[in-house]
Design brief:
It is a single chain. By secondary structure, the protein is of the alpha+beta class. It folds into 3 domains: 233 residues, 3 helical TM bundles of succinate and fumarate reductases (Up-down Bundle), CATH 1.20.1300; 103 residues, Beta-grasp domain (Ubiquitin-like (UB roll)), CATH 3.10.20; 198 residues, 2-Layer Sandwich (Alpha-Beta Plaits). The chain is 52% helix and 15% strand. The protein is built from 16 helices and 13 strands. Strands 6, 7, 8, 9, 10, 11, 12 and 13 form an 8-stranded mixed beta sheet that branches. The chain has a 5-stranded mixed beta sheet with strand order 2-1-5-3-4. Strand 7 and strand 8 form a beta hairpin. Helix 1 packs across helix 7. It is elongated, with a radius of gyration of 32 Å. The two termini are 47 Å apart.
Length: 559
């Protein structure tokens, strides 16, 4: 970023570390809850099995380390959740966000009762809180509280997991199974609890371990916890309402959307929150989580007085090669007047529908192998040929080469006269893509030999080819204006990897080789590096030379 810009730091709550802490603590608690419910489910087998498994479970959860991790995770997750709630600068939320927030705030009201009556009684009075004892005490009087607690915790957890995982490329494949488990686990958990509770109530004989004195003390603790949390929650709500009033009537700044409205808003809102609050159309595929760049804006003026980009925002901006005056609307919290222009059209796409969007429409960066191939001397060869003959020869060549590339798993990006650009590894691993590219070049050399034999009478001289292969990161996307002709529908690759692969193809002529492959491609494919074929070439735009390996004929590749 340029000097003089971004002198103000972003709020701590927007940092990537806070997000990771919230996710990590949530995963610890979710694991605890899941194992707890699965232990309940064993009531469908027998109470003895429930207690036997419980002994193993509490050996971990009630150990000193286990207690610190679980209690610490609960505290961290609650504090960060409340901080996120207090940090919201708009009341506008999606339905799932409202449910998750509401359930999360209500959980302690029910959870404290359960914790004090079980772990609290065990620690304070030495009451053995095994399943047989607790089921005798809790069934059926506490059944509704159990249903309420399970519902609040499980729904809150599942929504959080969904919001976290929905942008993962593999998530749509596992979603049906995850949904099945999300329904099955709590149902089995409560079913085991209720079946075991009825058995204990009709078969077992117990003396209630909770004496009137114990009971009165526990009830007192529960009331203290309930009203204490209610008071804290009430103060949070009062603070939030007061903040809303301050935002409405306190000092304000001006946000000018180029070719759009000019708004007055309070300091500290994210730009995306401001757009939502005033119904300004603003694209945000990931829902404002800084996991995409679709909400980015170009700052026309006022950037020097704005907060510095967080590490999370910097990573996204660096990934797309953004200019210094480009920021993410979901991360930028304007503290002074600002003029911006959104860079992507507002499609009003919901974040949960992101997987239904063609990822190449937005662009995706991944490691691929690029192939460039070009006919040697074809321009000179075609000078004395009839146009029909030239087109016929090119169609034969390009058609056969395209089939070979696609059969090997490659994607033909484009034809450039008598040249071909192809991409490998788009829908497979980088290693598989590199191997496929090597196999394709060997097959292309073989096909070229066949074409020379079959078209010997039509060709003034044999066709010769130069091929370059290079592996590295590239941006894949649909570039161009969409039209009925399909001109903007092809996927292409952009970046240094493309330039390097093209340079390798050009170098094949200088090196008197049919195939020039970079060291990166051979290493990615797991191909043993042949030292006798090693050379170094300079690539325009790169300070260091590129190590390559050459073959006079690609058919000599041992793959």
């Amino acid at each position: 970023m340029s000097d003089g810009y971004h002198k103000i730091k972003q709020p701590w709550a927007s940092s990537g570390l806070v997000h990771q802490l919230r996710i990590g603590s949530g995963l610890v608690l979710f694991t605890f809850v899941t194992t707890h419910l699965l232990n309940h489910a064993l009531g469908l087998v027998s109470i003895d099995v429930m207690d036997a498994v419980r002994e193993y479970r509490i050996a971990i959860t009630r150990s000193t380390l286990g207690t610190i991790i679980i209690m610490g995770s609960g505290f961290v997750h609650m504090v960060l959740g409340v901080s996120k709630f207090l940090g919201r600068r708009t009341w506008k939320m999606r339905f799932n966000e409202i449910v998750q927030l509401g359930f999360g705030l209500l959980i302690p009201l029910v959870l404290f009762r359960h914790m004090i009556a079980t772990r609290g009684a065990y620690e304070a009075f030495g009451i053995d809180d095994n399943y047989a004892t607790l089921l005798f005490v809790m069934w059926p009087g506490e059944a509704l509280n159990q249903v309420l607690l399970i519902t609040l915790v499980w729904v809150h957890s599942c929504i959080g997991l969904y919001i976290w995982l929905r942008m993962k490329p593999w998530f749509p494949k596992v979603l049906p199974y995850a949904l099945g488990l999300a329904i099955l686990i709590p149902v089995l958990g409560f079913s085991g609890f209720s079946v075991a509770g009825r058995i204990v109530g009709t078969v077992y004989e117990f003396k209630n371990p909770y004496t009137p004195q114990y009971y009165a003390t526990l009830i007192q603790w529960i009331n203290w916890a309930f009203w204490g949390y209610a008071a804290i929650l009430g103060s949070f709500l009062a603070f939030r309402i007061g903040r809303t009033i301050w935002d409405r009537f306190g000092p304000s700044i001006t946000i000018d959307y180029s070719n759009g409205p000019t708004l007055k808003t309070a300091k500290g809102h994210t730009l995306l929150e401001t757009s939502k609050a005033f119904n300004v159309p603003h694209s945000s595929v990931c829902g404002g989580k800084a996991r995409c760049s679709t909400c980015r804006v170009r700052v026309l003026s006022g950037l020097e007085n704005q907060p510095t980009a967080s590490e999370t925002e910097k990573k996204v901006l660096d990934r797309i090669g953004a200019m210094d005056n480009v920021r993410l609307a979901c991360q930028l919290r304007p503290m002074a007047d600002l003029s911006v222009v959104p860079l992507l059209p507002a499609l009003r796409t919901k974040a949960e529908d992101a997987h239904n969007i063609d990822k190449y429409f937005w662009g995706v960066e991944q490691e691929i192998t690029l192939l460039f191939a070009d006919l040697r001397g074809f321009t000179k060869m075609s000078e004395n040929q009839l146009p029909y003959d030239v087109v016929f020869m090119l169609n034969q060549y390009l058609g056969n080469m395209s089939e070979v590339i696609e059969d090997a798993g490659g994607y033909v990006d484009k034809f450039m006269g008598d040249g071909i650009m192809a991409i490998f590894g788009m829908d497979q691993s980088s290693q598989s893509g590199a191997k496929a590219a090597l196999k394709a070049t060997k097959a292309m050399s073989g096909v070229l030999n066949s074409l020379n034999m079959s078209m010997a009478d039509e060709l003034p001289e044999r066709l010769r080819i130069g091929i370059g292969l290079h592996t590295g990161p590239a941006i894949l996307g649909r570039i161009g204006v969409a039209s009925e002709s399909g001109a903007g529908e092809r996927i292409t690759a952009l970046g240094d990897t493309v330039n390097a692969a093209s340079r390798l193809e050009s170098a094949s002529k200088e090196l008197a080789a049919e195939l020039v492959v970079s060291k990166q491609t051979l290493e990615m494919a797991g191909y043993e590096l042949p030292p006798e074929r090693e050379k170094s070439i300079k690539v325009k735009g790169k300070a260091n030379a590129l190590t390559v390996y050459t073959w006079s004929k690609a058919t000599k590749l041992e793959i």
